[in-house]
Amino acid sequence: MIGEATPIYMYLHDVPRRMWEYNPNLKLIVVLRNPIDRAYSHWNHMRSKKVENLSFWEAIQNEQQRCREALPYQHHIYSYVDRGFYLEQLKRLWFYFSKDNVLVLKNESLREQPLATLNAVCDFLGVNHFASIVPKEVHSRSYALEMSDRERDYLRNLFELEIRGLEQVLGWDCRSWLSE
């Protein structure tokens, strides 16, 4: 079995179709993170790469205008907020792949219940379970600044309906995403 991990695949409009054309029996594993925290993490990553020079507030306020430069495509860098609208992205995946071929996990599950979550992945892939694991933090870094209350409140209001929709579609409880 061969795997590959590229978070932007789900976001890009034409990629699910291209994946399906390559192999309509692909099994996809989607790990969703609180879209508020995901946006801030993405911005911090771009700042650390010296690609982003705006403050987080300025970046999210100017995102739509900045992303127009990539039209008709989606912007790979400045899509901090847009990438957090997961329902549309999941619907694109489910258009091409059956829900049986798409495993959707919460990022918190990997942190809080790593063995159970990885064994759910094993069940999905049809491979043997892990007897034990040593949890490891990867692609994680501390931020120079924390997100301000104004920024978090703005994003909470922006994403509330999206998060409520995810709860309904996936049967999840995402209250913590709105209360953090």
Give a written overview of the molecule.
The protein is mostly helical and 180 residues long. The protein has a single domain, classed as P-loop containing nucleotide triphosphate hydrolases (Rossmann fold). 49% of the residues lie in helices and 6% in strands. It contains nine helices and two strands. The model has no long low-confidence stretch (mean pLDDT 94).
How helical, in percent, are the residues?
40-55%
CATH class: Alpha Beta
Query: What class do helices, strands and sheet pairing give?
Result: mainly alpha
Major sheet description: 2 strands, parallel
Main sheet: strand order: 1-2
Q: How many structural domains can be distinguished in the coordinates? A: 1
Low-confidence stretches: none
Oligomerization state = single chain
Bulk shape? globular
Counting DSSP H or I runs of 4 or more residues, the number of helices is 9
The name of the CATH architecture is: 3-Layer(aba) Sandwich
Predict the CATH topology.
Answer: Rossmann fold
Terminal CA distance: 38 Å
- Secondary-structure element string: HEHHHHEHHHH
Q: How many β-strands, per DSSP?
A: 2
Task: Return Rg in Å.
Answer: 17 Å
**What's the name of the CATH homologous superfamily?**
P-loop containing nucleotide triphosphate hydrolases
Compute the average pLDDT.
94
Portion in strands: 5-15%
